[in-house]
């Protein structure tokens, strides 16, 4: 019985406490939306991306005011990389290369799906990539946008099906 309380009761108590805190009114102030980093961290489909952002030391930068538009590869997109590539990029000695690849997935400004049109955009990495619309499907440097408009306090996330590289 003690184990049931330990493994079920305590986590449930924590959830109720978090909900009570989240719904509390702090003198009429609006609770801020989560940042794009917080949104990614709360989504299991982005666990590899979040690990890469941490390894590249980009959490603070991507948690700043922005706004940013992030083209976020899923875990499956990272798994599709050739064997050993991700593991190699996550090594401390490859931090600058990893940061460059991740910054290639980010543009300044908040671009919503309704605003997308064929265009070239400059990335935070410093180079450009092309956004195309082919038969109603948005393509970002060859990656297919599979989910759009995940809005955070400091930007928006669009989910893509592959890791794009400069």
UniProtKB/TrEMBL annotation:
Any single Gene Ontology cellular-component annotation: extracellular space
Signal peptide start and end residues: 1-22
Pfam families (alphabetical): Fasciclin
Keywords linked to the UniProt accession: Signal
Protein name from the UniProt record: FAS1 domain-containing protein
Organism: Rubritalea profundi
Lineage start: Bacteria, Pseudomonadati, Verrucomicrobiota, Verrucomicrobiia, Verrucomicrobiales
Domain named FAS1: residues: 33-164
Domain of life: Bacteria
Keyword Cell membrane: no
């Amino acid at each position: 019985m003690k184990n049931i309380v330990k493994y079920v009761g305590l986590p449930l108590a924590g959830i109720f406490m978090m909900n009570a805190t989240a719904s509390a009114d702090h003198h009429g102030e609006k609770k801020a939306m989560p940042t794009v980093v917080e949104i990614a961290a709360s989504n299991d489909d982005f666990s590899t991306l979040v690990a890469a952002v941490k390894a590249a030391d980009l959490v603070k930068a991507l948690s700043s005011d922005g706004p940013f538009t992030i083209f976020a590869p899923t875990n499956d997109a990272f798994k599709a990389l050739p064997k050993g590539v991700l593991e190699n990029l996550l090594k401390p000695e490859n931090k600058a290369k990893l940061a460059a690849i991740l910054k290639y997935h980010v543009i300044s400004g908040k671009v919503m799906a309704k605003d997308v049109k064929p265009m070239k955009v400059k990335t935070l990495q410093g180079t450009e990539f092309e956004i195309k619309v082919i038969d109603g499907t948005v393509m970002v440097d060859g990656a297919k946008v599979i989910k759009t408009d995940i809005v955070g306090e400091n930007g928006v996330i669009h989910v893509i099906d592959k890791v794009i590289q400069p």
